[in-house]
Every structure is written in structure tokens, then in C-alpha cells.
Predict the 3D structure of the following.
Amino acid sequence: MYKVAILDDSPEDSEEILYHLTNTFSEIHVRIKASCFTKSEEFFKALKNNEFDVLFLDIVMPEQNGFEIAKKLRDMKNELYIIFVTHHNDLVYDSFDYAPFQFLTKDDLYKETYLLKKTVTRLIDHKKKDVIFELFDESKDTFEVSSREIYYIENDKHYLNYYTSVSDHPLRERANISEREEYLKSLDIVRIHRKYLVNIKSIRLLDNQYDQVILKNGTKLPISRTYKKQTEMAYKIHIRTTV
Amino acid sequence: MLAKILSFLYEYVLINGCFMLTVTLPSYGILGAKKGRFFTPGTIIFYISVWIVSYLFYDIASTVSGFVSIFEGMATALIYSFIFCKGSAFQKLIISFLTNLIMILISYISMYTQTILFSVPVEEIMGNTPTHYISCIVVNAIYLLAAYLLIKIVNKKHIISKIKRTELIAIVISFIISSITSAIVLSIFYRYSEQFTFAVKIYLIACLVAIILFNILLYYFIYRISMQNRIESENEMLKIENEYREKHYEEIKVQHEQIRKLRHDSKSSLSVLRSLIISGKTDKAIEFIDKSAEEIGKINTFIKTNNDIVNAVVNTKLSAAQAAGIKVTALSVSDFGDIDSYDLCHLIGNLLDNAVCAAKQSDEKKLGFKAIQSESRLTIQISNSIDNSVTKSNPGLLTTKNDKLSHGLGLKIVKDIADKYNASTDFYEKDNEFNFIISFAFVPSLTNVKTYKLQQA
């Protein structure tokens, strides 16, 4: 069951989006549960009690525009995927600091249905990649961490240290880096060095000049020659999916 | 008494003065004096204090030759340049080192040339003899000449700034290697000179002369080649500019054509409106106005960013594409941050040119422009429809246009600009669509890693 929220000030547009979404999801045999909202307060109220997988968000709305809502969600540390829907093909948006999952224009939705299908497939792909890890800290308290919240993983003898946005100090797991490597790769966490695995999503810059990655939290990690190609490729593919 | 005074004047005023001048001149001549009113008195005080020091240590250090004088010369030059000259510490170090190396070479070579040519022992030249006085004057004159030449060579054409780093390394390495070789030759000379015949001595001197000549020639040729390369790359740039201007001209022609058509259309539509209003069909007239307004609105504004140059480039190119029957979609951020307008224009212009060209040849005729900003990146994606795979048939994306000389430079410009900003470039195909992506990361300290300048016409 895939939980979809649609926030659009015009009910007719919501309905249109829902119609196309239902079609697309049923094509790939995934059931959806959709909730439509016309006002942002309604949506935030519903968000308190429900969990959504994705939000289709209209950009141009009278009270609060889409970007403001996205920023609010981000400030709330909500990791909900957002897909902006614009009803103008020539839209220009102001710079903002929320990484959207996708932009869809009116044409994309109604005429170029393959784009919607591509987006939906990617959404389901991403949901598969959202895995919860059970880790513990030094005082043996357990933490539940989503794979999206991991910055990087460090190999420390028989343990793996997870550096996450959840905690300031590393969280640990007793495991072997070589055994975990293949599995973590399927979650977009790739090996860049004998000692390190990095979540591709958390890379801010891949600095080829100095053979290092700079992560969103400012950490700099070295890339070793063995893993350079693999890292570059994974990063490129990640960027492809964000445009 | 008189002889003593003369000898003192000679040793400390003439010879030491020459030595000081030689050591300090290159730093001053190449780097220039620091700003301030104390330069002249400061230099005089500096000279006097060095004289006093060298007088006090006269027994230890002979000012003309010997290893102590190497350190003395180096130290004097360094202290002088650090106190009085502009420039970085590295430049000062290099210049002092070079000056002293040249001085040592000259003193050794001239000394041994004299011993061979006039067949007098080294001791006589070193000792307190008339030959010593003459040789010292000659050597110091050569010093001054060398210092003067060094300043001339470095200053005249700003050669060092024009020579590339690899070329500079080649020059420095060959200079160091030949210095070492000549030092070895000299030390052989010094040790075994008594056993050598006159002919062997001549050969060895020829060797040294050859090494010096080799250095001069190498320097000259590297400089020539470097100049030639520069001219060639400048020509390449000019060619690109030229191509650009021609393309721009074509686009303006297309626009002009569109405006002409629009004017023609408006004439006829005004007459339609007139007849509609006269016959009292206001509903139809309003409908007609709405429809035409929509038509006009469609033309020419695809994106409206803060950057006028980007607007102009993207909108003209996309309009031309639309006029050629291509289906265009565009989406853009309003702000492009610190990226230079000229670079952006080149980058987007080149990519759009290629995409429009490819889209025209395809069946679907689709073109997309997207500039999207996320938390840490500005990503520009340009896509076009294709019939056949490009990455399979032409993986290096070489030009397929006939005139290979003036085409095919576009992607090079794109890659150069990407390198400048440490941006990543990527291209791939999916579902009959070719995508080119360039992604800039926002890391303030890294945006200006490389100094790079595109030739502006």
C-alpha cells in the first residue's frame, strides 16, 4: 500500500492528478491510498496522525506557496518525498533549499504519461531502499535509523560506526564491512575507501582534484583509487535521478 | 700605509660593493621595492651593516670565493629581499637561490679558465697578488652583467608568467642537473688539475661552455614553443567567438522573421476584430482577443530568471527551436548564484546548440531545458529526442558536422567551464532521449579552486 497526499488549491486539479496517479499505479500493480487537501492547514493536521509516502504539491497557491510548505516540512525534519506539480510550463521558481524528488509540469502529467510512470517507478524503488537499521550507542541504547538518515559508515575492527543525522556521536553495529558492502550498495551506500562507506545522497561535492568527498554535514572523506570509478558512477546516477 | 688603505678600499668598497650589488639587484629589479619612504636610507644602512659584519669576519670568510661566501651571499640576498622587496616568500627564495647559483658558477668557471689560460696556480689567484686583483675585478664585472641580464630576461616580457608550470619545471630541472654536472666537472678539475694536460683542460672547459649553451638554448626553445601554443589556443578561442557571432546573427534573423509575421498577422486580426465589433458580435470579439493573447504569450519567454544574459540565450535559442517545429519544455531556477554570466552563457548556449541540432534530425522533435536547485547543488539538464543511440555509435561525442575545424569545440568549452567550477558532467540515454547534465556543488571555498580565464573578444 502506497500512501499518497495531494495538496492543490483547486479540487478539479487534484482530481486530475489522482486520476492519472491511480492509472499509473495500477499499471504496475501497486495499490494506493490517496488523500486530497485543498488547504495546507488540513494537510499539516492530517500529517500529525498519518504517515504519507509522497506528497504531490502544487506550487502556485493563494495562501502559502509550494516552496514555503516544502521548507516548513524540512524545518520539521520531515523526510517525506515531495513532487512539485506546476500548472505553467514556463514557470520559474525562486531558489530554495529543499531537495525535491521531482518536478512535473502539466504537460508531463497529462500528455507525457511515461514521465509520470518513470516517477512512480522511482518512488517505489526509493521506498524499497528505505530500510530501518537497529543500531546502538555507547550506553547500549538502541536507535532506529532509516537508511536515508545515514551520512557515512566507518569500519572499526569488528564494528561499523554509523554517522547519522539522528545522533551527534556514531552509532554502532557489530558487523564486517566486506559482508555488508554488497547489501548496502543496493541502498545507495557505496564503498569509497578501505575504511569508509558513504551514502550517495549525503554527498555535497565529489572533489576529483583532491580525491575526496565532502558530505552535507561538512565531513571530508578520502576516496581510494580502487573505489574511485564506482563512486563516481554511483554519484552520477544519483544526480540523474534528482533532475 | 698607503698600500694598506688602497687594499682596504679595494677589498671593501669596490669588490664588496660589487658583490652586494649583484646579490641584491635581482630581487629589487624583478620584485620591486616595497612601498615606503625608507627604501634608500634603509638600503644604505643595510649595505653598511653588511660591510661591517663581513669586515669583522674577514678571517673566516673570503668575500670572493669559498663555501662561506655562498651562504653569505644567499643570506644577504634573502634578508635584503625580505626586508625591502615585494612578492611572496617563495619568489624571494627562488631569486636569491638563482642569483647565488649563477654567481658561484661564474666564479668557478672564470677562476679555472684563468688558471688554464694564463697557466697560473689557483693559489696565486686566491692569494694577495696582482693577478688576484685583476681577476676579482673581471669576475665582479661579469657578476653585475649576469645580474643585469637576469633582470632583463625575467622582466622584459614577463616570460615566467607566460610559461606553463610543466615547462617551468623542465627548465628548472635541466638547470639543476646541469649545475650538478658542472659542479662535478669542476671538482674533478680542482682535484686533478695538476695531472691534466693542457688539451684535457680545454676539453673540460668546452664541456662547461656546452652545458651553459645547452641551458640557454633549452630555455629559448621552450619559450618559443610555449608562445606558439598560446597563439594557437588564442586562435581557437577566436574561432569559437566567430562561430558564436554567426550563430547569433542567424538567430536574430529568425526572430526578425517572426516579428514580421506577427505584424502581418496583427494587421489581419485587427481587421477581423473591426468587422466583428461593427456587426455587434462582442462575445466572439472577446473570444478572439483571448485566443490571440494566448498565441502571443506563447512566443519567446520560456524562462524569466534574474540573469538577463541567460534569459536572452535560452529564450532566443528555444524560440528558434520552436520555430523549427521542435516541442520545447523549459523550467528554471531564478538565481544562478556565483556562476559567471559569461560562463553560463557559453555553457548553456553550446549545449542547447547541440541539442537543437539533434532534436531537428529526430522524429519526435523534443527539447527540454531544466535548471534545478536543491540543498547542495544546481543542476542543469538539457535533453533532446533521438532516433538512434548516440552513446553507442559515438561514445566520445565527437562532432558529426562536416566542417571539423570550427565545430566540435563546444563540448571542450563545456568541459573547461565544468572544470573551472569543479562541476560534474554526465550524459546518458534513456527511452529515445539524450540527456546532458552538469551539476554545480555549492561549496564556497571550492568555487575558485582553479584560476581560469576565457578569452573575451
